[in-house]
Amino acid sequence: MHEVTVFCPGHVTGLFYVPPQPDDLLSQGSLGGGFSIDRGVRTTVSIEGGEGIEVYIGGTEAEDPQLAVQTVAAFARAAGGLPEGKVVVRHEPEVPMGAGLGTSGAAAVGIALGLNVLVGGKLSEEQAYQVAHKAEILAQTGLGTVLGLYAGGCKVSVAMGAPGRGEARAIEVPETIRVVIGVAGPFPTQEALQNTGVRARVEEAGKALHAALAAEPTFERFLALSREFSRRVDLFSPTVRPLAEACAKEGIHHAMLMFGDGLYSLVEEARTPEVEDLYRRLLPGGTTFVCSITGERGKVV
């Protein structure tokens, strides 16, 4: 086999903070709460003639393929090498990129799982996810998303690190809950996190609210604490703030995508059309869609 396609769910972070980091990449990460969604990234990995790495996103060659480069290199180290040839990666995202929907983590997982099939399954599933975790850290695209994707469903992390090192506890979610997501555009994450005031708010709010969620890991607490985290961090753009205010007025759960210029709401299925309509009216130039929380991991399709 010279080509394989993997689908990996996306991921939404409700709250988080970054504790002091150890030297070991597998033990680095963040602590927080979030959930996997049934829309994500389809990644096709192939070994072709030539050498090096080519990466395409939605059919267009990637300007900065650093995450793929790091994932392929980390996988080669873990698996003891790769077949001769050029590694070609084609990502087809089902959700907006750079919007706080876990697409970087999903892309890294897709590459690692795809390469593992191409080399005959030299790594376990957990080891492939560890490769993706390392790559995200080295490429500076994420810290805790891969652990969340491995755990699946809605969860709170209680020990940071890659799968096998970190630990997450499941949060039971009613089957009738749906996720309404609205994205106005990308978010300048690096710029925001370089702001000392923003970092301080994330640290203070995230640490306290994570402790509260870990002590009482219920869906009701997740709803309340994720909304409170967004309120305390307060990074709503002028485009998204009117939607957040409208949701508050109508008693609709809402929280900011971390980090994206957008909002999400966890609502009962019966109320989904009403909430989706509100999102579309107040984010007319954005992307609005409805999805579900999923417990599945990345898989070959």
Automatic annotation (TrEMBL):
Q: Name one Pfam family in it.
A: GHMP_kinases_N
The record's InterPro entries line, in alphabetical order, gives: GHMP_kinase_N_dom (IPR006204), PoK (IPR012043), Ribosomal_Su5_D2-typ_SF (IPR020568), Ribsml_uS5_D2-typ_fold_subgr (IPR014721)
What range(s) does the GHMP kinase N-terminal domain occupy?
Answer: 67-140
Q: Which residues cross the membrane?
A: none
Keywords of the record, alphabetical order, are:
Kinase, Transferase
One MF annotation (Gene Ontology) recorded for this entry? ATP binding
Q: Which residues form a coiled coil?
A: none
Alphabetized PANTHER family for the sequence: PANTOATE KINASE, PANTOATE KINASE-RELATED
**How is this protein named in the record?**
GHMP kinase
